[in-house]
Amino acid sequence: MLSEMACEELPKEVCAFSVASSGKRCLLETEKAAEGGVEYQCRTSEVVVERMANYIETDQCVEACGVDRNSVGISSDAFFEPQFTAKLCSSQCYQNCSNIVDLFFNLAAGEGKISLQLTIL
């Protein structure tokens, strides 16, 4: 039997774009450290991923899709950068990295800010 994966137990280096055993997305957040600095913590979001659990995104997909594991939170602002949209819609990302594609397309749809028409490069 596979062990349960909780976001709070993941190191920050693999937190972003991971999905806990519960099916909820993991999210990198900042927290004030006792010494006054800033620490990064992996937290469980309320966003449930359909048909995916206990998953850590591959480095190949992170690179192919042009995302950064050190990003704190997730924002649709990246869609306004042509380079990001081109990488997200590239065949290397779109055809092989359904977790990342699902995350950003659901984010865009949920915020209602932008409407994307996919062009596979």
UniProtKB/TrEMBL annotation:
<protein>
    <recommendedName>
        <fullName>PAR1 protein</fullName>
    </recommendedName>
</protein>
<dbReference type="Pfam" id="PF06521">
    <property type="entry name" value="PAR1"/>
</dbReference>
<dbReference type="InterPro" id="IPR009489">
    <property type="entry name" value="PAR1"/>
</dbReference>
